[in-house]
């Protein structure tokens, strides 16, 4: 039996342009368990798994079962002084609508259940076709959409939010974890494994083959300097049309030599996030009413309260997620925008690492928003004790979304660009 990977039997070279630094490389044949890294910036270009289709299919099915269990049983129950309340997972979103916070409610239900559900169905649809050796209809559109859904699924962040909420109320009332809570933990873990199991290089090769690489493409220099661009979704290297634009021949994704107006858009999103950060900290994020007495608390106030309770670890989690991460992201991205045009190859490695970090940690700021959603739904014991959401919840949610969008619109290839001509139509590249 022939054990050569199927794509290695393609006689022509398989070229890839690194997403992060635009370096053009030829992929070697990859065996299961191997990965190919960019020689210039270290970004992982392709990771090859054992039996990728079976693996993704099994994980996606298991995650889907766990999600269905998580939405059908009680999530957490709470009781204080004979009064009690038991909530289901979806009530963490629906209760917010009753408090006139529809946007926060939509953000919660989308990130923890709806988008992951759509993602898992998409993965199953794709892999079903690949396992049969005959891609099902709309496979390319689905495969393209999956990559865009990825950063907006936050089941793992929600688990941290649930744990923080439980610790916050643990000494005020009796808490019981329902079956759905454990099912949701399993779901979050399986979802994470599913996203990691997707081998998009193998998937696109199986879905649509490998069209011929553009003529005269040279490796060991940037794609943009040759009028080429790597597709951000399927990886295929394409020749760009006039004005540095084009469309991927394999998946149909729109291509640009560099994201258009990347700096201006990033600056605008950062400015908007900075503005929203003010109400997010000035207004209360939630108000706790206990025996008729209302006590509003801001983000910082909540941290101070936790320290007074002696919950140092939880206070640290909230402080890092709600203060350090968003402020750090604002500062780091602003700095990257400022210095991008004054880069050298040596700095670029560190700057790319910083950029990757800001992209990776952004979603973890949602912890505080999830804490509000859970506490508002859970703590309902009439006049004895209740929690209502404050205006800061929406403002802070907006900060998280805006900084995530800012990181996405920032084109990390700009960090590496300075030694090369900035004009996308230029054909002369500096050898290096
Ligand atoms: Zn690279
Ligand atoms: Zn493509």
Describe the 3D structure.
This protein is α+β, with helices and mostly antiparallel strands and 432 residues long. 51% of the residues lie in helices and 14% in strands. It is built from 13 helices and 15 strands. The strands form six sheets. It has a four-stranded antiparallel β-sheet with strand order 13-12-15-14. The chain has a three-stranded antiparallel β-sheet with strand order 6-5-7. A hairpin with a 2-residue loop joins strand 5 (74-80) and strand 6. Helix 1 runs antiparallel to helix 3 (102-132). The radius of gyration is 24 Å and the shape is globular. Bound molecules: zinc ion (2 copies). Residues 231, 233-234, 236, 248, 250-251, 253 line the site of one zinc ion. One zinc ion binds at residues 231, 233-234, 236, 248, 250-251, 253.
TL;DR of this structure?
51% of the residues lie in helices and 14% in strands. It is α+β, with helices and mostly antiparallel strands.
User: Runs with pLDDT <50, length 5+?
Assistant: 420-432
Rg measurement, Å: 24 Å
* Order of strands in the sheet with most strands: 13-12-15-14
Determine the structural class based on helices, strands and strand pairing: alpha+beta
The distinct bound ligands, ions and cofactors come out as: zinc ion
> Main β-sheet: number of strands, strand sense, barrel status?
4 strands, antiparallel
Mean pLDDT, to the nearest integer, reads: 89
Task: Find the count of extended strands (DSSP E, 2+ residues).
Answer: 15
Separation, N- and C-terminal Cα atoms = 42 Å
| H/E element order | EEEEHEEHHHHEHHEEEEHEEHHHHEEH
- Portion of residues in beta strands equals 5-15%
Helix-residue proportion:
40-55%
Put simply, the count of helices is 13
Overall geometry = globular
